[in-house]
Design goal:
The complex is a heterodimer of chains A (108) and B (120).
Chain A (H helix, E strand, L loop, with lengths): L4 E2 L2 E4 L5 E6 L9 E5 L6 E4 L13 E6 L2 E6 L8 E8 L6 E3 L3 E5 L1
Parallel strand pairs in A: 2-10
Antiparallel strand pairs in A: 1-3, 3-7, 4-5, 4-8, 6-7, 8-9, 8-10
Chain B lengths: L2 E4 L3 E3 L5 E8 L8 E6 L5 E7 L6 E3 L7 E6 L4 E6 L8 E8 L7 E4 L3 E5 L2
Parallel strand pairs in B: 2-11
Antiparallel strand pairs in B: 1-3, 3-8, 4-5, 4-9, 5-6, 7-8, 9-10, 9-11
The chains are: A mainly beta (108), B mainly beta (120).
């Protein structure tokens, strides 16, 4: 079982805002990173650290954190944002890495 | 631009071992953490372990302790992941991923994945 918990599925209407969450005790001490994965492709880092976007990631993606919960927000979701989203962070010991179970985002 | 190129697909018998390679280009190899992440069919991402080449000591997820070995060859900028005592549940796509630094969790560059099929 994962130390990071995500909702299995979330949906959003085209152009609306959606928040995907990731819960875990280690998030009180460490930031989460977020990855987008489309079918048959390798994951892509979309948010890391406090709220940093790698080059090429649209600014509609943003990250935040409060207590034991990290969030990925997509403001104005596009059809191409339909994908699986995973969070990761350090585990409770701080020595290892864990992934959340993933959230399947559907854009309606 | 950093690129990670992994070795090709493998078919293995239960009980055997597999060694997957990940060759890096376009950046400094030794200072950045390399992780191995696997994904079973229809399942999520699972961190197996990682290494910072310049330090040479790998960290492993508890689930894989004793079965996985992660190494690097700095002369060829290549990382390796060897998994032993294979069973059918190890059938998965195995990815290498390079950190943006040494945080272990900023996996900014990924290989294309290597499908390992374990079947008798």
């Amino acid at each position: 079982s994962s130390e990071l918990t995500q909702d299995p599925a979330v949906s959003v209407a085209l152009g609306q805002t959606v928040r995907i969450t990731c819960q875990g005790d280690s998030l009180r001490s460490y930031y989460a990173s977020w990855y987008q994965q489309k079918p048959g492709q390798a994951p892509v880092l979309v948010i890391y650290g406090k709220n940093n976007r790698p080059s090429g990631i649209p600014d509609r993606f943003s990250g935040s954190s409060s207590g034991n919960t990290a969030s990925l927000t997509i403001t104005g979701a596009q059809a191409e944002d339909e994908a699986d989203y995973y969070c990761n962070s350090r585990d409770s010991s701080g020595n290892l890495v864990v992934f959340g179970g993933g959230t399947k985002l559907t854009v309606l | 631009q950093v690129q990670l190129v992994q070795s090709g697909a493998e078919v293995k018998k239960p009980g055997s071992s597999v060694k997957v390679s990940c060759k890096a280009s376009g950046g400094t190899f030794s200072s950045y953490a390399i992780s191995w992440v696997r994904q079973a069919p229809g399942q999520g991402l699972e961190w197996m372990g990682g290494i910072i080449p310049i330090f040479g000591t790998a960290n492993y997820a508890q689930k894989f302790q004793g079965r996985v070995t992660i190494t690097t060859d700095e002369s060829t900028s290549t990382a390796y992941m060897e998994l032993s005592s294979l069973r059918s549940e190890d059938t998965a796509v195995y990815y290498c991923a390079r950190d943006l630094g040494s945080s272990w969790v900023f996996l900014g560059y990924w290989g294309q994945g290597t499908l390992v099929t374990v079947s008798s």
